[in-house]
Specification:
2 copies of one chain form a homodimer. By secondary structure, chain A is of the alpha+beta class. Chain A has helices at about 20-25, 35-40, 45-60; strands at about 5-10, 30-35, 65-70, 70-75, 80. At the A-B interface, strand 1, strand 2, strand 4 and strand 5 of A face strand 1, strand 2, strand 4 and strand 5 of B.
């Protein structure tokens, strides 16, 4: 058990400008559940870039990332692994 | 940092019989993202009982539980707190 808890935060991706805040939360070892549909409905290409950016960030930081249904993406710090077979 | 990672698992609640497996995962200190809509569409009263059961379990184990949109419920072990303002 670690002393300080890990936080789990639900956030909404409305624009590619939200990415820096999301990365800051990820740097604080937060688990982020990201609702991507608002940006998906606005600009699919921008969503693609945003997800690619987050994917590269997560890869380099040793975290994990996975789709959660149609609406959400989960991002974890290196202390949290996403179970295989996530739907 | 702890040595063994925490796991995050996405599971679907289809019946009240799934509750014992979910509690077993929670006992293993897993974070569970539970899609509740399949049971919600089948039997709202059974869903209500299942959520109440999980809520009481989480309360007694020092974990955290929160709704995530219309479709999902998040359950965390005591080492993970859910950020206030979760949507």
């Amino acid at each position: 058990m670690q002393k300080t808890p890990i936080y789990l935060k639900a956030v909404t991706l409305k624009s590619i400008n939200d990415i820096s805040n999301i990365k800051n939360d990820a740097k604080k070892q937060m688990i982020i559940i990201l609702r991507v549909t608002p940006l998906a409905h606005k600009d699919v290409e921008e969503l693609r870039k945003a997800i690619e950016d987050l994917y590269n960030y997560v890869q380099s930081s040793g975290g994990d990332i996975a789709r959660l249904g149609e609406e959400r993406v989960v991002i974890t710090p290196s202390s949290v692994r996403i179970w295989k077979g996530i739907e």
